[in-house]
Specification:
Length: 349
């Protein structure tokens, strides 16, 4: 007899993309930023080290909250909760809203982690398939027995597509529960939903510094919700869920909006080249609002392509979504990395 709860034994556990610790790879598999982060984070981290690490960090990361309220033009820091990466935020929300046997809704195909979070709670989950044009059916906003939380990544992963602000507002109006818009990739997109949080208390928006700020190794994310929501979420988080170094670096990074604008422009320009290059090689590519693209080739199965690329030291993400498709999710690297990828693919397809 296993001493573990049956739902833990039954689940597979979330498998992140490969992070090879040795050898030289062109790494296009986990949507990291290929460029160094905002330069100001170095001094911010050094200042913390000079003060010493004997003391616990500010449990609420208030320096970050104040900076974020200013940059995001929010009424105040009480609209923000910081987390140890936005995965921490997603965990906090699932624990706060969804009890055993209750229901979590998510679109399909989307971020695999959501399902693991439901399994950890011994909750049920319901996947609503995207329409062929990457909109969502009206059923995504329908009430359902036990429905307690809805996740919507926008832009979505692995497709890079987006649901409109109008549709999101309409879903939120009909849903009986909070709707968390996961904006992990929104800095690469044409629009965002931040201002909808004030329009409907059910709408919450999470973001991360892992992708657009080039700080995946730092672990910092946050959620924006109405203050009476944040007040409850605070009770669920670990007491010191963000460390002093990450709070200081994240605060400095968010303060450098000029850096973000330049990085965003670079990524979007390279995304265009990647999309055009793959299309030219016969791939069908979903137009992306993110820092990755999803592609399949009508004549070449995705898995062997992934394996052949890996043998040649280029890592992309092979993903298989039963009932939809398998394919390759390729992160937008530097122009040089994308050039190397396209050159190699040309010899394979
Ligand atoms: C990368 C990612 C996250 C989590 O990012 P963190 O590194 O934990 O901040 C959340 N949602 C989606 C859809 C992602 O792709």
């Amino acid at each position: 007899m296993s001493p573990f709860r049956p739902n833990i034994v039954a689940m597979d556990g979330y498998t992140p993309g490969e992070q090879p610790q040795a050898g030289k790879f062109i790494k296009l598999n986990t949507n990291e930023n290929p460029y160094p982060p905002p330069p100001g984070i170095r001094r911010a981290i050094e200042e913390v080290l000079d003060r010493g690490l004997q003391r616990y960090p500010d449990p609420m990361a208030n320096s970050f909250r104040l900076r974020a309220a200013e940059v995001l033009e929010l009424p105040g820091k009480d609209w923000i909760l910081a987390g140890n990466g936005s995965d921490d935020i997603l965990t906090i929300c699932t624990r706060a809203f969804v009890g055993p046997g209750e229901l979590l809704r998510l679109p399909y195909p989307s971020y695999i982690l959501y399902r693991s979070l439901a399994q950890l709670q011994d909750a049920r989950w319901e996947e609503v398939k995207f329409n062929a044009d990457w909109s969502l059916p009206a059923a995504f906003g329908n009430p359902a027995e036990g429905l307690k939380l809805v996740f919507l990544p926008n832009p979505n992963s692995p497709t890079g597509t987006m649901i409109s602000r109008e549709a999101i507002l309409e879903f939120a109006e009909r849903l009986p529960c909070p709707l968390l818009i996961d904006e992990a990739y929104v800095d690469f997109a044409d629009f965002n939903c931040m201002d909808l949080v004030a329009k409907n208390e059910k709408i919450m928006v999470s973001r991360t510094l892992s992708k657009s700020y080039g700080l995946a190794g730092l672990r910092f994310g946050y959620i924006v919700a109405q203050p009476h929501f944040i007040e409850q979420l605070i009770k669920v988080k670990d007491s010191y869920n963000c460390d002093s170094l990450s709070i200081a670096a994240a605060t400095a990074a968010l303060g450098d909006q000029a850096w973000l604008a330049e990085n965003r422009a670079n990524s979007i320009a390279t995304r265009k080249r990647l999309t055009a290059g793959l299309s030219q090689l016969g791939f069908s590519v979903i137009p992306s609002q993110s820092n990755f693209v999803w592609c399949i080739h009508p004549r070449h199965p995705a898995k062997p392509l992934y394996e052949q690329l890996k043998q040649n030291r280029i890592l992309v993400r092979y993903m298989n979504y039963p009932g939809w498709s398998d394919g390759l999710r390729i992160s937008v690297g530097t122009d040089e990395q994308i050039e190397a990828l396209l050159t190699l693919l040309k010899t394979m397809v």
